[in-house]
Structures are given as structure tokens and as C-alpha cells.
Amino acid sequence: MHRLKGKLSAHAPRAAGLAALVALVAIVSVSTAGAKPGRSQATVVFMSTQLTPVTEQQKLIDVTLKGAPVSVNFVAANAVSDLVTRINAEAQAGSGTVSLAAATVGDLETVADKLTDLSDVAAKLKNAGIPKSLMDQAKLGTNKQLSIPWMQATYLMCANKKALPYLPKGANLNSLTWGQFAQWAANLQKHFGTPEVGFPVAGLFPRFLQGYLVPSFTGRLVTKYESKDAAAAWLYLKNLWRFVNPQSTQYAFMQDPLLSGEVLVAWDHVARLTNALTAKPDDFVLFPAPRGPKGRGYLPVLVTVGIPKTAPNPTDAKTLIAFLDNISQQARTITEHGFFPVVAGKLSKTLNPGSLELAAAVKVQQSTKDALPSVLPIGLGAQAGAYAKVFTDTFNRMVMNKEDPMTVLKDEGNQLQTLLTAAGAGCWQPDPRSSGVCQVGG
């Protein structure tokens, strides 16, 4: 059995007034080994909404952070609200323990006013080749460099090569339509006698609904949530579900049922497909999600790191950012975590076949002419969980319980508007930016 190196502990903040709050949050932290020669004696508390499963934490500590010039205490924020609540509470108290915070752009933007300007770090990373578009996203909706890109990812389709002979006649794996995908699923069930498609309903399935399904049929998301085009998307999924393995409601990571042969075709986050590709690179093929009437919806993910204004150790936090964005550590975002580098240049000459397959598939998905990118929700803060629930509730009511589509969309649209108003959140891609609270439309 593999064990995490370092100690596991509940990390309590120095400010006494925060003790009860952190006890409620119940965050687990993992520390790197003790200080080495040349290392700062202070510790950087690094809190992240990414790489939170225990196995992913282990890889981060044992491999990616190995040799870091500073001592690191990694704190897993198992929900976005954990990080948001912690940063806000420490700002209110006027002192804190978190020196480095990592999250997707949309989530970190929620606490943008609590972060310090990192223009000096950006200047030092000028030669790293981080694209301007990523640096601009890392400004978190401001004109200041409030965070620095760390890693990026997306979600892809994965198929066992045994499924390929049953593609519809004339279908191209890299340019499938959702109609062809449904026919493929039907063909597989007819041949094998069981549903061979799988989705991680117990995992990141809300991201499929938000970034892939609905935008592909509507060209928008929130502003078309109650539309007839949106109803068509959900009705498509209802029809497709006849060919989906019933165990999908229990799947959190699709790499496991792919490896076991429970399913032959699946969708998931690239980090949650990596084990299958590494273990049996010759058995699987990756491809972009299919396209719908409005385009090929997909969801790129940019993870950035920022330093809270209350950080007790900002100098070492900046050193850690530079370490995370160096060539060696960036190469490990592929091999260890299934994420992709944000820096340019040749990162490794020895990437394994599975990693090369991932990198190629991501490039194909991003470069298709009909690509319709979305971004993760921006500005939801503590409403992030309620936002995801709207989509899972819509799925359960319409697809699983077969309720009336327009009634469900109206009910859930009202819930969506309530939480957007509570968060004060404007619209985000693929919806046009709004000057005020994003409005649910039809």
C-alpha cells in the first residue's frame, strides 16, 4: 500500500478567531519533508482546489514538489467554498496562514480583491513562454496580475479500440456528431448485448452538462437555459441513456471501468483517464467530444496560483510559483497529474505514450473549426455547489425520472437565477459578458 510522505494534520490558522471556522471546514493537509540545506526554514501553506484526491496529493508531494527550494504544507480544499471561506475569513481577521492559493480562474476570481499583485513574478517568468492569453486570464477580470498560470486541462472522450469497428459508416472519430455518437452507442449495445458507454455521474459529470452537452445544442448556457434548444439537448441525453451503463451513477473516475472492461467508451477529465492510458496505451484512443447543432462544446480549464494579502510568507510563495512553472515541474503536470503545461518549449524527450496521446487529443479538440469553448463558472463563490446541483437536478428529473422538459427547465431556471443573483455573478463564456447579474433566458 502506498502512503503519503510527510505528516497528515488538521491545519489550524494562527488567528484564534478562525479556529472554529477551520474545524468546521475540516481540511486535511500534507507536509513535505523537513527543511534541506539551502531551503527556507519557513513553511509555505499551499491551499488548492486541484489535486485533492489522496492519490493525486501523493504524486504532488512525492514527485512534483520534490526538491522544492521551500518547505511546503499542501492543504486540500475539497470544495471551492473551503478555499473561498478560508481566504475571506483570514482577510477579515487581518492575518492568515495560507501563503499560496490555487484554483481555476473562475473560482479564484471570487477572492480576487483579497490577492496581491504578482506583476514582479510575471516579469521574472517572461522567458518561460506562458501565452499572453493565459496571463490575461490570470488577471482574474482586472488589469492587475493577481495570479500566475500553473497548469491547464480539459475533458475528453476515450474509447477502447475494440469499439472502433462499430462506428457508424463514414464516421470520423475526430469529427463525430452527437447523432453519430448515439448510433455508435446503439451499435455497441446491439453487438455486445450490454450498454458500453459510461459517464462519471458520481464525479465531474456536471462539467459535461455545462461545457459539452448544453452549449453544443444552444450555443450558450445560462442565457438559453430555458430554451427549446436546451430541451433538445436534454432529450438527446435521455435517448442516449438507454445505451449507457447503469453503473455510471456510481462512477467517479472513468479510468477504472475502462481498464476493467465494464465500458468501452467514456468521457472524463484527462487526469481521470491517465491511469488507463499509462497502463494500456495500445488499448485506448482519445478523441474530442462530438459536436451538436451549434458547435463542438468543450471546457478548457486553467488553474492559476495567487498570494493572499494576508500571506505570512509571500517571499517563499513567489519562489514556489517560479519552481512550479519551471520546465521540469511543468513536464510533470503531464506525466503525474494528467494536466498540461502552461509554459512553452520542449518539456520532455521521454514522455510516455499515454501522455503523448493525451497531448495530441487536447490539441485536436482545441483546434477544430467548430470548437465552442466555455469557461468554468466565474464569480459564484459559495454558490458553486448550488450551481452544480441545478444541472444534476435537471439531469435526474428529465433524464432519469422522465419529467416534462419545459416544466423542469423553468423550475431549475428559477433556481439558477436565484443563486446567480445571490452571488452577484455576471455571465461567462459561452454566454456574452453581462454588465450586471447574468439573466437566465429561453
List the helices and strands and how they pair.
Layout: E1 8-10, H1 19-25, E2 28-31, E3 40-48, H2 54-64, E4 70-76, H3 80-93, E5 98-104, H4 105-109, H5 119-124, H6 132-137, E6 148-153, E7 155-160, H7 178-192, E8 197-198, H8 205-218, H9 228-240, H10 255-260, E9 265-269, H11 274-279, E10 284-287, E11 296-298, E12 301-306, H12 314-324, H13 327-335, H14 353-367, E13 371-373, H15 384-400, H16 405-423
Parallel strand pairs: 3-4, 3-5, 8-9, 11-13
Antiparallel strand pairs: 1-2, 2-4, 5-12, 6-12, 7-9, 7-10
Helix pairs in contact: 8-9, 8-15, 9-15, 15-16
Note the main attributes of this structure:
442 residues; alpha/beta; D-Maltodextrin-Binding Protein, domain 2; seven-stranded mixed beta sheet; 16 helices; globular; disordered N terminus
Explain what the structure shows:
With 442 residues, this protein is of the alpha/beta class. The protein contains 16 helices and 13 strands. The strands form 3 sheets. A 7-stranded mixed beta sheet has the order 1-2-4-3-5-12-6, sandwiched between helices. A 4-stranded mixed beta sheet has the order 8-9-7-10. Helix 2 links the parallel strand 3 and strand 4. Helix 15 runs antiparallel to helix 16. The radius of gyration is 22 Å and the shape is globular.
End-to-end Cα distance, whole Å, is 52 Å
Strand content: 5-15%
Strand order of the largest sheet: 1-2-4-3-5-12-6
The multimeric state of the shown protein is single chain
Full CATH superfamily name of the largest domain: Periplasmic binding protein-like II
The CATH architecture of the largest domain can be given as 3-Layer(aba) Sandwich
What is the string of helix and strand elements?
EHEEHEHEHHHEEHEHHHEHEEEHHHEHH
| Rounded average pLDDT | 88
Our Rg estimate from Cα atoms comes to: 22 Å
Give the CATH level 1 class of the largest domain.
Alpha Beta
Shape, please? globular
Number of strands: 13
Number of helices: 16
- Helix fraction bin: 25-40%
CATH topology of the largest domain: D-Maltodextrin-Binding Protein, domain 2
